[in-house]
Amino acid sequence: MASVELLTPHLPKIKIPAPQQIVYKDECVYSFDNPESETGLYVSLTSFLGFGRNYVEQYFQKTGNPVFLHIQREKTPIPEPEVTGDGPEKKITRLAIGVEGGFEPDICKPKYTYTDHYNIVVLPGFYTFPWPDPSLPEVIKKSVQAIINAESPFKMAEMAALQGTWDGERREVSVHAVNLQQLDNNVKIPPSGWKCAKCELTTNLWLNLTDGSILCGRRFFDGSGGNDHAVEHYRDTGFPLAVKLGTITPDGKGDVFSYAEDDMVEDPFLADHLKHFGINVQQLQKTDKSMVELELELNQRTGEWNTLQESGSELRPLHGPALTGLNNLGNTCYINSVVQVMFRMPDFIRRFVEGAPEIFSTFPEDPANDFNVQTAKLGVGLVSGRYSFPEVGGAQRGVSPHMYRQLVGRGHPEFMSKRQQDAHEFYLHLLTLIERHSRHRVNPAECLRFSVEERVACGASGSVRYTRRAEHHLPLPVPLSAATNAQQVRDYEQRRAAAEANGQRLDPSQIVRPHIPFGACLDSFMREETLEQFFSTAVNEKVTAQKITRLATFPDYLLIQLKKFTIKEDWTPAKLDVAVDMPWEVDLSCLRGRGPQPDETLLPDSSPQAPTPQYDEAVLAQLLDMGFPVEACKRALYYTGNSGLEPASNWLMEHLTDWDFANKFEPPGSQPAGGASVAVDESSVANIISMGFTRPQAEKALRATEGDVGRALDWIFSRADQLDAEDEAPPREDRTLGCRDGPEKYKLVAFISHMGTSTMVGHYVCHVLHEGRWVIFNDNKVALSENPPKDLGYLYLYERL
């Protein structure tokens, strides 16, 4: 045992964490080692950063901070009580995995008791002092005790993420509940025997809390549910709140929907509102399914959940390098699936796995909040195999990306929350972060980047214009009209409707989904699009034009998004339950753009007579209040000729999934080819110049990002070492936009699937081609895939052959 005097020279460096100080005592900031690891965790008594055994010496050599609290956690299994089969079954109340009320991913994992053992360790010799020890210096004792008492930073992040969000159970109080108008129309509601006032339905009934009307609810995407009479009533009357009959409990709770707010809400005065119609809540019992329960039942009925998880197969667990699972931290399956796919590409492995020693060697002051460090940590954790070993139940211990999840979600209203999110939107968000933090480094996302070419032909003159932009994904429409089994689908719908009329349900295995050929999706993408009000610089007036979209370059890896998520006529989100025949290998040469042809006449770059678009400010304000982006609203008003709210909102719903939906709007015909002479806003130029960049650099960045200052800064930072060389180069037309190009033949190497009826609920899993075998990654469960359900995916990653 070392002498206490050994600590004396280091006492001036010892600090005591303040009450709100972040103390990283749960996990190493450079690896996924933690107190349960074989070598435990070392927490610096100076910086309060935690380190695994592999990194603590490097930290000491870099900083000279020698004193650490060593935490070693011992866990002891608690014997499981004998199961008799008579105990209550856990009720699933949420369509999610790894969160309270949802599916428990580690249901088979035994429970443990935990005991933490502490020592003070001094480097470089790893001299050890036991804790507690009254002979230790006072500052050491205070520092160590404060570290032990400190709140877990992961728990603090979880609490922050839950603040102000609906976690699936807690709902916002409706703004209409306090002063809800209730008509004195002498309507009294009987305690039972309800049916829709407009049809004969006796289930899925909603009581309007203003006039007492009882009407059926919305029709679900699979045809079940109601006939939309309750929502039609709202459109006719504007009466905002309705409660689902059968969900009301004696304590005055129930499923309340606000049509005006388009969400499930809380009505704290529900008992009083029901009393107006003669309903005594204390005499009511819940007899109908809540909306959460219906959502669960709907997904289980479609059979999609079991198919995508390959529940019918006896999956063989896999372990080892690049076969590491990611633990679900509460609706983080969308993050887990995306990063598993990203680290299949050599560019990402070179940058963040092979490049990890260089990234770590910088030892930033706060590595837990350094994007490159945390991405490298995640990559090494996934690829190394160090954390990929089996546990009880076939799952893995895997890695828990707490720090990464907190970092990539910071400042983002959706990704910082605990709610389920769209994997595609997270993919784009992650690429933005990678580009932003790739200054002076190769951006690994360049292997996904390609140039899109749009050709617009003026209907009056026949002249054409070519424009280009860079993208990282190819969105393909899913044309239901192209289903090859349309008659079988109609027969199935009739059988299901007949069964439900008799109070029965068809077996999920009997479901018949529309089968869409992949070629039909390509044809839908490639078809000509008619542009109204295109300003032709050839004739100096608005004309009708035709636009076709092709790819000017083909990337090393092509990410395809199937546009399965859509908006129904009643403006509610829906997911197309279809099977698309995605190919294992594909030749996409039909998508190759050829650029200007010798027999084509190009439209003039600009016209002094191009009119400035005018927007109806009142309608624009209404559209913004509905939550649409301002640039999308301008598009809608332009293309509908300022003809009112309804045409504009309909246009927005039809174009919600357009590539450029929220991009800066330039009226068609006003942009010169290639964007070389696009005018840029002087205030935006001045803003960027004030940060130390030249005017040519600022203008180039703004033109490349359609005038968006935030995106322009990301663009300019990621290319700062190249800008001067680019400025000196002679100007030339570049159809590639600096994107890589190569043959158009690809093979499928990964796909992400979604289970659920919307992006806000459900679960994501991914399948990856690993060493010639398909592997399913279902959070921390990694197994050999027997039946990869490639026809039911959402995002597909193809690699060039």
From TrEMBL:
Report the transmembrane regions from the record: none
One annotated GO molecular function is: cysteine-type deubiquitinase activity
Ranges for domain UBA: 614-655, 679-719
Q: Which InterPro entries does the record cross-reference, listed alphabetically?
A: Papain-like_cys_pep_sf, Peptidase_C19_UCH, Ub_carboxyl-term_hydrolase, UBA, UBA-like_sf, Ubiquitinyl_hydrolase, UBP13_Znf-UBP_var, USP
Query: Which stretches make up the USP domain?
Result: 324-801
Enzyme active site: C333, H763
Query: Known catalysed reaction(s)?
Result: Thiol-dependent hydrolysis of ester, thioester, amide, peptide and isopeptide bonds formed by the C-terminal Gly of ubiquitin (a 76-residue protein attached to proteins as an intracellular targeting signal)
Tell me the keywords, alphabetical order: Hydrolase, Metal-binding, Protease, Repeat, Thiol protease, Ubl conjugation pathway, Zinc, Zinc-finger
The answer to keyword Zinc-finger applying to this record is yes
CDD domains assigned: Peptidase_C19B, UBA1_UBP5_like, UBA2_UBP5
Known SUPFAM superfamilies for this protein? Cysteine proteinases, RING/U-box, UBA-like
Biological process GO terms, please?
protein deubiquitination; proteolysis
Against PROSITE patterns, the record matches this protein to: UBA (PS50030), USP_1 (PS00972), USP_2 (PS00973), USP_3 (PS50235), ZF_UBP (PS50271)
Q: Where in the numbering of this chain does the UBP-type domain appear?
A: 172-281
Q: Where does Zn(2+) bind?
A: C196, C199, C216, H229
Keyword Repeat on entry: yes
Enzyme Commission no: 3.4.19.12
- Similarity annotation: Belongs to the peptidase C19 family.
Q: What is this protein called?
A: Ubiquitin carboxyl-terminal hydrolase
Q: What organism does this protein naturally occur in?
A: Papilio xuthus
